[in-house]
TrEMBL record:
Keywords: Endoplasmic reticulum, Glycoprotein, Glycosyltransferase, Membrane, Signal-anchor, Transferase, Transmembrane, Transmembrane helix. Residues 83-180 form the Fucosyltransferase N-terminal domain. This is GDP-fucose protein O-fucosyltransferase. The lineage of its organism: Eukaryota, Metazoa, Chordata, Craniata, Vertebrata. It catalyses: L-threonyl-[protein] + GDP-beta-L-fucose = 3-O-(alpha-L-fucosyl)-L-threonyl-[protein] + GDP + H(+); L-seryl-[protein] + GDP-beta-L-fucose = 3-O-(alpha-L-fucosyl)-L-seryl-[protein] + GDP + H(+). It is a single-pass type II membrane protein. The gene is Fut10. It comes from Nannospalax galili. Belongs to the glycosyltransferase 10 family. GO terms for cellular component: endoplasmic reticulum membrane; Golgi membrane; nucleoplasm. It is found in: Endoplasmic reticulum membrane. Its EC number is 2.4.1.-. One of its GO terms (molecular function) is peptide-O-fucosyltransferase activity. PANTHER family: ALPHA- 1,3 -FUCOSYLTRANSFERASE, ALPHA-(1,3)-FUCOSYLTRANSFERASE 10. Protein O-fucosyltransferase that specifically catalyzes O-fucosylation of serine or threonine residues in EMI domains of target proteins, such as MMRN1, MMRN2 and EMID1. Attaches fucose through an O-glycosidic linkage. O-fucosylation of EMI domain-containing proteins may be required for facilitating protein folding and secretion. May also show alpha-(1,3)-fucosyltransferase activity toward the innermost N-acetyl glucosamine (GlcNAc) residue in biantennary N-glycan acceptors. However, this was tested with a library of synthetic substrates and this activity is unsure in vivo. Residues 214-362 form the Fucosyltransferase C-terminal domain.
Amino acid sequence: MVWIQRRKLLASCLCVMATVFLLVTLQVVVELGKFERKKFKDSHLQDERKKVEEEPKHLHPFPEKEALALGGKSKADVGAHPIMLWWSPLTGETGRLGQCGADTCFFTINRTFQHHPMTKAFLFYGTDFNIDSLPLPRKAHHSWALFHEESPKNNYKLFHKPVITLFNHTATFSRHSHLPLTTQYLEGVEVLKSLQYLVPLKSKNHLRKRLAPLVYIQSDCDPPSDRDRYVRELMIHIEVDSYGECLRNKDLPQQLKSPASMDADAFYKIIAQYKFILAFENAVCDDYITEKFWRPLKLGVVPVYYGSPSIADWLPTNRSAILISEFAHPKDLASFIRQLDYDDRLYEAYIEWKLRGEISNQRLLTALREREWGVQDINQDNYIDAFECMVCSKVWENVRLQEQGLPPKQWKADVTHLSCPEPALFAFSSPVPPALSGRSLREMWIPSFQQSKKEAQALRWLVDRNQNFSSQEFWALVFKA
């Protein structure tokens, strides 16, 4: 009997210990979850704040902008200058007095300045622009400024009239924006003319014994441009060496597999060995032109381009790239590539401009000469600095007008500042391999774009109401029957 009671007591103790253990474990899991969520959030914000430093260096490898020291100044002291509040924490700066020519503005990500009387402008980074938190109510003297150099797929609702016209000032990839960033991936004329990485045609012909005529390197698979579908069809008609995650049939050296290696010297030398590269953007928009186009031109490789319909306006010469829009079907493009591959005289016509160092496109030359920012140039502001100073200068212009008793100027973006057509899918007769069917993202982009129109309309209505709103209110409007 005593033995039985001892077993019951032991069992009870074990149950209590197990319960305590489970509770402690649960608490640990909860705390770890909080920690991980916080770490993820902090990491995300840090990544956004460090875009200038840590994204592939061709994007924005900029030196820190010179700033006036704040010292121990109070918020009231700071308020002696117009305040530019980064509502999206792109720069990560808690406070900086920035000099823009003769004008000085205070730049910060500190949202406690939202209702400060000297807060004149709210700066938004397009990818992070969302409905969860907006600086409402918006006062009459509050300008909204948009910085968005990235793909439309990052935030489709910005690309519709109801939303883009919310902004007073813009810096986008469109030539029509207030601060055009169309050439954001091109350092300058000299890198186009440079022969540093050029592999002689004789050597390329010899390398053709082990290399395909075309190379493709993409790891962002099935984007809105539907480029992988085109390349998959093209591969039926001509050999393509594909190194990225998308349609990969060849591997890069281990040390070059990181996206951060895309501007490594060793990576450049691999690409430079090819005659042609498939330079396909992830989205099709006028003036949306990335390093996919400029990199091969710098390396002496002929880009086979798909992306911006206005690309002809930015070619170094009329014959410096092959545009797939000029071919009815991938098999026609493949036939043309083979013709150039076999005929040195025809191929050289596409690199003659580089061999001679001659760029005939005056639009391109003018854009590079007149832009107010530089790429990898310590002697120039970067384009984030230029954007900040553009807004600062506009704010000061109105301050001076009001000091003279004159009405302020009104600036406003229009649809040309950020506009892309609805994504379109390629339709070829060749079936998609069974292993690839059902896993493609390609079908999601058109419905996503169509829904973004409803999101844009709902957002505009709510912002025009000029009151804070909840995400529930927003989505109720979006899906309203």
